[in-house]
DNA sequence: TTTTCTGCAAACGATTTGCATACAC
DNA sequence: GTGTATGCAAATCGTTTGCAGAAAA
C-alpha cells in the first residue's frame, strides 16, 4: 500500500548527515540503517526488533547501542519514530522529500495489526494551524483506531 | 481552545456502563472519574497525575488501582488514552457524542508543550478508509509535531 | 592522539501482577 | 455470602546510564 519506490536515505546520506553534526560513521550505525534499507516491507521496527535482526546476521551489536543509534538517526531525520501504544517506540525509514512523509496508520484495537495508507489530505489544515499557532510544523501523524474485518465480532470491549 | 461545554460523562453514566458489563461501582472508580470531571482544563492526565491529585484530596487510593481503573474507564469508552511520547499513557474525558471526539494535538518537540485544536477535517477521509479497508473505525487521532514560538531557536536538532 | 562510541551491567521509571484483605452486590 | 476490587509490595519490561575499553577522525 505504501509506495516502495520513493527515494529514502542511503549509507552515503548517513555519512554526510553524521559528519555535518560532528558524529562518527561507525559500522554499527551503518548496520542499523542497512536493516531498514534491506527490509522496506518491514517498517515499524522496535529497538529489540533491530537488535534481534542484527544478531541473526552475526552482528555482536549491543542493545544499548541500538537504542542510542535509533535515537540519533531520528534526530538526523533519517528515521521517524512512531508509537502504536504497544509499549515500545518503533521507527520507520523517512523519505528524502519531506512532502512525501505523509501516510496514515490504521490500527486494529484487538489484534494490533497496523495497515498503512499513503493518502493525505492534511496539508491545508497543517498550514492553517501553523499560521494560527506560530508553530513551525515539521511532521504530522494520523492514526485511525478501530476493528479490522477479522476482529469485528460481537463484543469489542474485551481483547 | 477546546469547547468546555460539550456533554461528557457523569457518575450516573459510569454506574450504568459498569453494571452493564458486570463491574462494580466503587468509590475509587467514582473518585477517578470525578477528577476528570472536576478539572476540565487539565486534560492529558497520567496515572501518577491522578494518583497525586487524589492523594492531595485525602484519598488513600493505591497507584495500582488508578492504573486498573484508568484502563477500565478506557475500555468503557468513558476515557480516551493518548500518547505524546513523554513516556507515559495519558487520558482525557471522552464526549458522549462520538462525532464530537475530534480534536488535534500540536506537540512541541522541544518543550513538550501540547496545544489542542477542535477543528477536524478528516470525516470524509475516515469514511473512505473505512470503506476501502473494511475496518470499523471507532476513533482517530491527529498529532502535529514541530517547534512552538518560544522554541524556534537556531538549532532544532538537540533538545 | 583525542574524542567519540561501544558493550556490558546496573539503574531507572512506568506499568503489571500476586496475594491477602475489604467491600459492592 | 460470594465474587470482585483494593492496597501493598514485588516483579516486569522497555529504556537509559556509568564506565572502561575500542575505534573513528
Please provide a brief summary of the model.
2 copies of one chain form a homodimer. Chain A has 5 helices and 6 strands.
Number of helices of chain A: 5
Number of domains of chain A: 2
Distance between the termini of chain A: 27 Å
**Mean pLDDT of chain A, rounded to whole units?**
82
What this model shows, in words?
The structure is a homodimer of 159-residue chains. Chain A is α+β, with helices and mostly antiparallel strands and 159 residues long. Chain A folds into 2 domains: 1-100, Arc Repressor Mutant, subunit A, CATH 1.10.10.10; 101-159, Dna Ligase, domain 1. Helices cover 35% and strands 21% of the residues of chain A. Chain A has 5 helices and 6 strands; from the N terminus they run ααβααββββαβ. The first copy, chain A, has helices at residues 11-20, 27-38, 47-56, 63-75, 123-133; strands at residues 45-46, 79-83, 89-93, 104-108, 114-117, 136-147. In chain A, the strands form 2 sheets. A 3-stranded antiparallel beta sheet of chain A has the order 1-3-2. Chain A is globular. Residues 1-5 and 154-159 of chain A have low confidence and may be disordered. The interface between A and B is large, with 43 and 43 residues. Strand 6 (136-147) of chain A pairs antiparallel with strand 6 of chain B, so a sheet runs across the interface. Chain B binds a DNA duplex (25 and 25 nucleotides) through residues 19, 22-29, 46-48, 60-65, 67-69, 87-89.
Give the key terms.
globular, 159 residues, 6 strands, alpha+beta, Arc Repressor Mutant, subunit A, DNA-binding, homodimer
